[in-house]
Amino acid sequence: MSSSVPPSPHRRRLVGVSTKMYFSHARTTQFIASFIDGHLQHHTSTNPNLAASLASKIDIFIIPDFLSLTSAVEQSTRRQTTDGPKVLVGAQDCHWEDSGPFTGEVSPSVLAEVGCSIVEIGHAERRRFFGETDAITAKKAQAVARNGMIPLICVGEGEAGGSPGQVEEAQEEVVRQVESCLEGVDEMKEVWIAYEPVWAIGAKEPAGKEHVRAVVRAVRKSEVVRRREGKGGMTRILYGGSAGPGLFAQLKEEDGVDGLFLGRFAHEEGQFWKTICEVAEVDDSKGRAE
Ligand SMILES: O=C(CO)COP(=O)(O)O
């Protein structure tokens, strides 16, 4: 019962949150119920224009821990309305094989079977604590796409002493990562790229807007992304790393970033909802904060 992302001729905006390993199962259940009932449905059920506008402009996703995944899918499916935006559910990782002797691992085909729409791969924390590389991320991205889900591929330049380095170096490193992580991924399938500079994850503040814009521009113009677009494989690009309300308007530029991938600053339902509304509102060609 794979829950697919609704097809879109244009790059709809994206806003999602990963709960990483911060939440208990009870808190995840409560977060989803309270976000959908107390914010999304509460505001859209009495305002059909808002429901239609969000549904046409934005895709919302929640990435809980593995054990909460099936109940998260069930919760979001049960609460789904026909005219409002969908809340998609994703996984934080998977194996690159569909089945076999891989004790403790999670199969991408089982993730698709239980209604998962997205699989996040190559996150900086997986690279740092579990030794994941671009080559492993590419194999996982192939497996996710093969199983009809969207690979959410995380990339970002390294520490540079815990602070931003030269933007040109960041552009080069990130484009090289994108090329490696997309190796062998079906070029007709959609992928999402989360640009998350390592030094901006878990920090007090996100990366500066000029830095993010420049790196996103380089990814957008890269040969691999252009080639995929030519073959029909949409590439949506998100920014992540201490993102929260108030950020998207600063980052947005024409043909730039498509959305935000949130962590701590959306672990409160109201902040998540606030960010979604802001992302949907920002003018298509420019950020409001120019
Ligand atoms: O890693 C992130 C999303 O994948 C971002 O996490 P924080 O927003 O908590 O820094």
From TrEMBL:
Entry-linked SUPFAM superfamilies: Triosephosphate isomerase (TIM)
GO cellular component, one term: cytosol
Enzyme Commission no: 5.3.1.1
GO molecular function, one term: triose-phosphate isomerase activity
UniProt keyword Ion transport present: no
Catalytic reaction(s) noted: D-glyceraldehyde 3-phosphate = dihydroxyacetone phosphate
Alphabetized UniProt keyword annotations: Gluconeogenesis, Glycolysis, Isomerase
Source taxon at top rank: Eukaryota
Pathways involved: Carbohydrate degradation; glycolysis; D-glyceraldehyde 3-phosphate from glycerone phosphate: step 1/1; Carbohydrate biosynthesis; gluconeogenesis
Annotated GO biological process: gluconeogenesis; glyceraldehyde-3-phosphate biosynthetic process; glycerol catabolic process; glycolytic process
Annotated InterPro entries: Aldolase_TIM (IPR013785), TIM_sf (IPR035990), Triosephosphate_isomerase (IPR000652)
Ranges in a coiled coil: none
Family that this chain belongs to: Belongs to the triosephosphate isomerase family.
Subunit structure, interactors included: Homodimer.
Protein name, UniProt field: Triosephosphate isomerase
Source organism: Sordaria brevicollis
